[in-house]
Amino acid sequence: MIAKRIIPCLDVADGRVKKGVNFVHLTDVGDPVAIASAYQQQGADELVFLDIAATNEHRQTMATMVEKVSAQVFMPLTIGGGISSVADMQRMLRAGADKTAINSAAVADPALIQAGARKFGNQCIVVAIDTAWDATSQTYRVYTHGGRQATDLDAVDWAKHAVALGAGELLVTSMDRDGTKAGFDERLYRLISAAVPVPVIASGGAGRVADFVSVFKNTPVDGALAASVFHYGELTIGDVKQTLRQQGVVVR
């Protein structure tokens, strides 16, 4: 059985880790290299870095940060935010990233998924999907631009299309649950996981160890991502893994 992954997420702006609620009200958390090193010591399986101030002038800042982090930690790194070309992907991979995550750029130009997969392999291409429940259409609607711009895309349909184009993994964030610590949106992850044959990472809503246990027992997701509960020391990765093992969930 494949071991489930526990993945801290570091939202980065101006070289610092930030955290907010429902994608807004950002506060400074600390230095990304120091935080990444601490997560390695705790036993994190991977790290995700998202450039939430993703303008062109931040590309070099992010590449420099990735170089510093990859020199200090030895676990897979996924880098996303503002990656809009194969050249951007290559820059991050050369800096030390193992995978690149694309969201808004993939929606704007789905061919970017295919181009990246062809050049670097499917395993390097993560499509990040930010989604919220739309009561009117009774579907999960896809959002871009850091959750600020709604699209007409249904999250399940978009997930299938992204994978068909070459996405090797999906990072699916419930905007409704982001930063709320109200638990993962398990309905969302059951729908997405049933629709695609690639690993799905659940993001948004982790507040207690029980939330990790629940999402792994009640959905087929391959990993669970969290930020606030780890950043502020409310949970440690060791605590989470110990409880998961006790509950019969296979972890590294």
UniProtKB/TrEMBL annotation:
SUPFAM superfamilies: Ribulose-phoshate binding barrel. Pfam families: His_biosynth. The active site is at D11, D130. The keyword Glycoprotein does not apply. It comes from the Bacteria. It is found in: Cytoplasm. Keywords: Amino-acid biosynthesis, Cytoplasm, Histidine biosynthesis, Lyase. CDD domains: HisF. Its EC number is 4.3.2.10. It is an enzyme of class 4 (lyase). It catalyses: 5-[(5-phospho-1-deoxy-D-ribulos-1-ylimino)methylamino]-1-(5-phospho-beta-D-ribosyl)imidazole-4-carboxamide + L-glutamine = D-erythro-1-(imidazol-4-yl)glycerol 3-phosphate + 5-amino-1-(5-phospho-beta-D-ribosyl)imidazole-4-carboxamide + L-glutamate + H(+). InterPro entries: Aldolase_TIM, His_biosynth, HisF, IGPS_HisA/HisF, RibuloseP-bd_barrel. Pathway: Amino-acid biosynthesis; L-histidine biosynthesis; L-histidine from 5-phospho-alpha-D-ribose 1-diphosphate: step 5/9. GO terms for biological process: L-histidine biosynthetic process. IGPS catalyzes the conversion of PRFAR and glutamine to IGP, AICAR and glutamate. The HisF subunit catalyzes the cyclization activity that produces IGP and AICAR from PRFAR using the ammonia provided by the HisH subunit. Belongs to the HisA/HisF family. Heterodimer of HisH and HisF. This is Imidazole glycerol phosphate synthase subunit HisF. It comes from Lactiplantibacillus xiangfangensis.
